[in-house]
Amino acid sequence: xxxxxxxxxxxxxxxxxxxxxxxxxxxxxxxxxxxxxxxxxxxxxxxxxxxxxxxxxxxxxxxxxxxxxxxxxxxxxxxxxxxxxxxxxxxxxxxxxxxxxxxxxxxxxxxxxxxxxxxxxxxxxxxxxxxxxxxxxxxxxxxxxxxxxxxxxxxxxxxxxxxxxxxxxxxxx
Length: 173
Hints:
single chain; mainly alpha
């Protein structure tokens, strides 16, 4: 997926950018900038996927409020807060490339590891979606428990902890 994004960013160059790319030293800088843009696009895509799950979580909370299951609503509010935190972190994370004069320089191997890491965050969307599916079924049969709701909170804690490791990739370089 990252390669496709990088190709799309590179393919959107105009004639001036093609000409400037021929300047010695500029080409490598520009390629890193394009990879940085691809990283940003990927993270925004992942954030949108999590936004969809947040909307589903809000629907679940509404259904529980309607059935007066306020004990579960309180737990799911914690989950919603953790999910919103993850979404915000995805949208505002560093782009994975330090500028020309920044203290931390990031090479292409590190960028590749960051892309792999970001793509791995997509797997979390599927896991979250599956858990929400199970919770919706449990609400319909009035079988949802606080233990089930706490599983969601734990999963979101784990996703946030995993995302915290992203910065370590840059710092290890």
